[in-house]
Design brief:
Length: 304
């Protein structure tokens, strides 16, 4: 028997059906994570990652029971490796197995945009911003797509966060443009709206503190909250809280910081921002109550 015959004999029976079933389970896994708070009480927030990991482990076992090199035909191999890498990549922390699978997938099929984007997400989790950016740009070489666009929008802001306003201006405005383009790809995608809101918020701080920019920011967050996936993400409420704080709508800002904390209890920034705002409001209340009759040293301590 020839080598080719041996290889063909190893191919899974009904391989396309197997792939379809794996894809359906992978989609269900991501829906379980992304729509967790649509189907579970917020009190289960501390259990969310553990519950997702348990479901992931079951699916990982199915993927790992298949040898991509011998049991999956070459025409389907890149898609299989992409799916396997995406399964690994659902975890909030970096998994080197995801990078390995996804790197192979894009080498086998450079036009597989989903694999490029997933590879970018994987590198990003490992704090490898350079390779993440390269991956998203790799996807855009084949097709303008909202995921690559919005991720590059975020990366541009990250790369310029420590620069002076004059130096960061061009990059921040490009970040806004990329986020706008991402929204235009699918106006119902709340995650893209959330990224656009964040881009406007960054523009407010890094370019010019124009109240009109904050209004655009709040409008984007409002659109984001219409999407069940976006409205389950704590960063939407945290960033919205920041925008509300600088809009001087303090009661809603406090609510959003609190809600962000409830969605992701271990995440500290919402708790810290809420505490700072409460301290500021208490200081302001004391000033009003005493008509400002406070010593300068005491006042400075209260508002720090």
């Amino acid at each position: 028997m020839s080598l080719d015959s041996d290889t063909e004999a190893d191919i899974l029976e009904n391989v396309e059906e197997v792939m379809d079933n794996l894809l359906k389970e992978l989609q269900d896994l991501y829906s379980y994570r992304d729509l967790f708070f649509e189907n579970h009480p917020i009190d289960l927030a501390t259990e969310k990652n553990k519950l997702v990991e348990e479901k992931k482990d079951v699916l990982v076992e199915k993927f790992e029971s298949i040898d991509a090199d011998t049991q999956i035909p070459e025409a389907l191999r890149a898609k299989f490796l992409y799916m396997k890498g995406r399964c690994y990549n659902i975890s909030p922390t970096y998994d080197a197995r995801a990078t390995q699978c996804l790197s192979k997938a894009v080498k086998l099929c450079p036009a597989l945009i989903d694999a490029w984007n997933e590879l970018g997400e994987s590198y990003w989790k490992n704090m490898n911003v350079k390779e993440a950016k390269s991956s998203f740009e790799g996807a855009l070489k084949h097709e303008r797509n909202r995921l690559s666009l919005r991720c590059l929008s975020i990366i541009l802001r990250q790369e310029n966060s420590d620069k002076k306003r004059s130096e960061a201006h061009t990059a921040i405005m490009k970040s806004v443009d990329l986020a706008k383009e991402a929204v235009s790809q699918d106006i119902k995608d709340g995650v893209s709206w959330s990224v656009l809101g964040n881009a406007y918020l960054c523009q407010f701080f890094m370019v010019a503190q124009d109240p009109a920019t904050l209004k655009l920011c709040m409008s984007a967050y409002k659109q984001a909250s219409l999407d069940p996936i976006a409205k389950g993400q704590p960063d939407l409420y945290y960033n919205k809280g920041i925008a509300l704080k600088y809009s001087e709508i303090y009661d809603e800002a406090l609510f959003n910081f609190e809600y962000a904390s409830r969605l992701d209890p271990p995440w500290q920034p919402p708790k810290q921002e809420r505490m700072r705002l409460v301290t500021f409001l208490n200081a302001a209340h004391s000033l009003v109550k005493t008509r400002g009759k406070l010593k300068a040293k005491k006042l400075a301590t209260m508002v720090q």
